[in-house]
Design brief:
It holds the Pfam family BioY. This is Biotin transporter. Belongs to the BioY family. GO terms for molecular function: biotin transmembrane transporter activity. The protein is built from 7 helices and no strands. Helix 1 runs antiparallel to helix 2, helix 1 packs across helix 3 and helix 3 packs antiparallel against helix 4. It is an all-alpha fold and 183 residues long. It has a single domain, classed as Arp2/3 complex 21 kDa subunit ARPC3 (Orthogonal Bundle). 67% of the residues lie in helices and 0% in strands. The longest helix is centred in the C-terminal third of the chain and has 29 residues.
Length: 183
């Protein structure tokens, strides 16, 4: 239990630290940041439940006003901005990513983590993200989806990084990989 709490807090902090990497602002008003890599790693390393809890802790701190998002942003207003759908999708993304890694035990870990990061950290994340952009920017879903396309190459790279880092962590510290601990 204590180890879980520490790791959940540690991974919430990891997402915050990845926000220190300068953001790239897009025309949609949703920035490209490294924080989605942190969300992916929450799932690949901690698993579905703990990964989602780490992201929820991070979002609680953001909602309370801590400037933890890329560019030093924080506060409730972000949850009605063009980024809102992506923020709301962060816990879902970590959960789906972790669930895939937990269930895909027949795949090598790097491949399972990459697949999980793509299905969770891209597919599951983009669904609420695109819906949020459509609502806040008064766009159709296809128009909002087109605004999300610039994120795809970077997110695929982040999914690859998540796969490599997760596999490396498992080799260096197998006990730290909770997403496969039950197996």
């Amino acid at each position: 239990m204590e180890k879980n709490v520490v790791l959940i807090a540690l991974f919430a902090a990891l997402i915050a630290v990845l926000g220190m990497i300068p953001k790239i602002d897009l025309i949609s008003g949703v920035p490209i940041t490294a924080q989605s890599l942190g969300v992916m790693l929450c799932g690949t390393v901690l698993g579905a439940r703990r990964g989602a809890l780490a992201v929820l802790l991070f979002l609680l701190l953001v909602a309370l006003g801590l400037p933890l998002l890329a560019g030093g942003r924080g506060g409730l207003g972000l949850f009605v901005s063009p980024s809102a759908g992506f923020l709301i999708g962060f816990p879902l993304a970590a959960f789906v990513t972790g669930l895939v890694v937990e269930k895909a035990v027949g795949l090598p870990l790097a491949a399972a983590a990459f697949l999980g990061a793509v299905l969770g950290g891209i597919v599951a994340l983009y669904i609420p993200g695109i819906i949020g952009m459509a609502i806040t920017l008064d766009k159709s879903l296809p128009e909002a989806a087109m605004l999300a396309l610039p994120f795809l190459p970077g997110d695929l790279i982040k999914a690859g990084i998540a796969g490599v880092l997760t596999s490396a962590l498992a080799k260096a510290r197998p006990e730290a990989l909770l997403s496969r601990a039950a197996h």
